[in-house]
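Researcher: Structure for this, please.
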Amino acid sequence: MSSVVPPPRTAHPRLILSMDGLVLREILLDREHLTIGRKAHNDVRIEDFSISGEHARITTILGDAFLEDLDSTNGTSVNGRPVTRRVLADGDIVELGKYRLRFVAPADAPSALELGRRRAPEAPARGVSEPDTPPSVSARVRVLDGPHAGRELALLKARTTLGSPGGEVAAILRRRDGYVILPIDGARPRVDGVVVDGDARAPGERAVIELAGVRMEFQQRA
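Model: Predicted structure, token format:
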């Protein structure tokens, strides 16, 4: 009996581009930003009129890949559902016009959305979770209102997901030069009153983050 052998995992996530079941190429997500579209300046060029000139962008941070539709004419879907922004999970099928991109996660790397479904034992606030990475700077989030007002969460790891699946979700990502906040699945968090709608935004040493009607104070020390 024959069996289908899954593709080997690598240190970086990747995409398998296909059309009508025929694999065309493999794309390694080894850079932070990758654009897909019909125009020549895109990182991945697909010369087909079902694809917009600048169709979609994938931002890869710490092994997680965040897909964003760039107001394309025919739209972008994941697993048959139209999306504007989404964190990709292993095995997701991204549909761009007549083309398919299968997302393959790196070995032993859970997605930010999966992390959002977990509950860290030490997390005091509902819907907050973290992966395992040692800290390089000291930072924390303190809840300012709601039933958990006054509670604090130390940002000790590389990714902390705020919110819960089905609601607004955002990720706080730790980089060497500090922290950034990134909206997930169409969330529109505010940082000091300004909507974060697109690329990751650095909150600075102190900022107020608003997500799903809850205000949280972010504090960072070098």
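Researcher: Any notable elements?
Model: Residues 14-104 form a domain with the Tumour Suppressor Smad4 fold (CATH 2.60.200.20). The chain has two domains: 14-104, 139-220.
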